[in-house]
């Protein structure tokens, strides 16, 4: 189960909420993207990092739909948190793995 959670996180962490490029894509309005996130949330209920991103995505999309935050700002907030959680996960993995310096 732990390996499934790690794979889901790797996929999720490296697939952003909103696209990049010349034209920003709004994944808040993408039903396939929502189905994917909801499915992953069910598969890894104990993965707090993923659940944090899932909850943040829901909240940010709600604010985008309400018009209380721009898509650009929502994307920046999400990507900042995603980057923070990736770094946290890497640090935890490094602490758990045996040191190659010994």
Number of strands: 0
N- and C-termini, Cα separation: 31 Å
Q: Total number of helical segments?
A: 4
Describe the biggest sheet?
A: none
Mean pLDDT: 82
The proportion of residues forming helix, as a percent range, comes to 55-70%
Question: Uncertain runs with pLDDT below 50, 5 residues or more?
Answer: 18-22
Shape: globular
Please give the radius of gyration in angstroms. 15 Å
- What string, H for helix and E for strand, traces the elements in order? HHHH
Strand percentage lies at under 5%
Would you tell me the structural class of the helices and strands? mainly alpha
Write a brief caption for the model:
It contains 4 helices and no strands.
Task: Describe the structure in your own words.
The protein is an all-alpha fold. The protein has a domain at 2-13 and 37-95. It is built from 4 helices and no strands. The longest helix has 26 residues, at 71-96.
Give the SSE map.
Blueprint: H1 2-13, H2 31-43, H3 48-66, H4 71-96
Helix pairs in contact: 3-4
Features:
102 residues, mainly alpha, 69% helix, globular
